[in-house]
Amino acid sequence: xxxxxxxxxxxxxxxxxxxxxxxxxxxxxxxxxxxxxxxxxxxxxxxxxxxxxxxxxxxxxxxxxxxxxxxxxxxxxxxxxxxxxxxxxxxxxxxxxxxxxxxxxxxxxxxxxxxxxxxxxxxxxxxxxxxxxxxxxxxxxxxxxxxxxxxxxxxxxxxxxxxxxxxxxxxxxxxxxxxxxxxxxxxxxxxxxxxxxxxxxxxxxxxxxxxxxxxxxxxxxxxxxxxxxxxxxxxxxxxxxxxxxxxxxxxxxxxxxxxxxxxxxxxxxxxxxxxxxxxxxxxxxxxxxxxxxxxxxxxxxxxxxxxxxxxxxxxxxxxxxxxxxxxxxxxxxxxxxxxxxxxxxxxxxxxxxxxxxxxxxxxxxxxxxxxxxxxxxxxxxxxxxxxxxxxxxxxxxxxxxxxxxxxxxxxxxxxxxxxxxxxxxxxxxxxxxxxxxxxxxxxxxxxxxxxxxxxxxxxxxxxxxxxxxxxxxxxxxxxxxxxxxxxxxxxxxxxxxxxxxxxxxxxxxxxxxxxxxxxxxxxxxxxxxxxxxxxxxxxxxxxxxxxxxxxxxxxxxxxxxxxxxxxxxxxxxxxxxxxxxxxxxxxxxxxx
Length: 592
Description:
33% of the residues lie in helices and 22% in strands. It is built from 10 helices and 31 strands. The protein is elongated.
């Protein structure tokens, strides 16, 4: 568009020179005609007449051409002025290529940084924060070249980038096979490595700012750069921030080459700065655990419930259906808040957790543990024991100590409590882990119910014991009359006769002992006229304890009474048993 005006200007200049030349010729002839005489004057006069007429015709034609060219030139100038005015406030540095063509050029473009501005041998890349047009386009080819100089290949298609702080970081779902790995987080896949990038170039990572929210950015990696826009923030350890175009593993989300907003992980995702900072700040990867895996019940109201509960977590008070209210009086606002809140709980700290169970509001205390599974790792609640089982429930690895140390490699698990494992056929490891989580969550729920029932019974026993001790103290006091004593013991004796047919020997100041006992006796019928009722108990030993007013006497129940039968175990889930097959022999292994 700028070449044509130049040609027209040259033609017009030549025409003006021609007209000047012709005009000078006519002036010379006019002077000669006036100055000379005779034959010369007649000759000049003849030439002047011919030339004058010819020149007038030529001049007329030329003037017409000049008029037409002037109109054309003015019209074209107006078009150029309009185009210039339309772009005067929207200067375009260069047009970005289509995504499929926007790759690293074959030529090696050298990029350098000077006074905070990136320069190259091709053109200068200017920071665009002062631009008002959100449709500003940038040629990100230079950012792709910058990435090549600020990253390093550690093998197997895995790259790491260098930060301005000096760290070299990358992402991989499995630990890279490199001796230079200093730290690897198996939960989220970030790694830190030693070594040096053979370049002075590095990245400055920043939080998502106003520029990133409103302007065009680029997904940059070893395969080039694609322009796109920020879509959404990271909302969990594995719920990555989203970009409008596909991202490359260990690529970056960039605006002016050296400034980035995250480390990309493939598909459309990238890891934001706060998650990278958390990884870099820890000496070893750590995630707190309170014995549950939550699920979102209502995202809008930030309501979270217990989906799975770990029965192996010490003193776990949770069961499925519990709704979280707060942790240490902090109510999480969203899923990301909840994940970070639990993950950052200090190890072995006792935390207060408020939950809603049915219609009741409960506050429980939990001692924080360390998480062993989840996110990118398998999560079956068995990871803490280093205990591995195949998809057909054959033991593959056992720990040297702990509850699973009684099992042996090659044992086949047939039953877990009363659940027949042979009915399940998981297709892969994920299905097997989900099956274990579901099974263990139900066992954990039974354990919570069992413990709550035991606590309720104990509270009733304590209340009854206290009431009976008060009554006995009244009869043993000096103010009690003999008639009152006789009346009480007479009623007790009558009830005992109805309940027991056998001999009883009573030592003075001692405890009655039972010699014979008949079947189908109802302990609740022995009520002591309603005074000594002990609801829910089926043991004469408990009655003896109730009447034992000697506080110095320590009674230890027989060992056989402290062993729970398997039927009770199945009913209440107080413990866990594995029925296994070991080389054709089947036997039960209790987990203590």
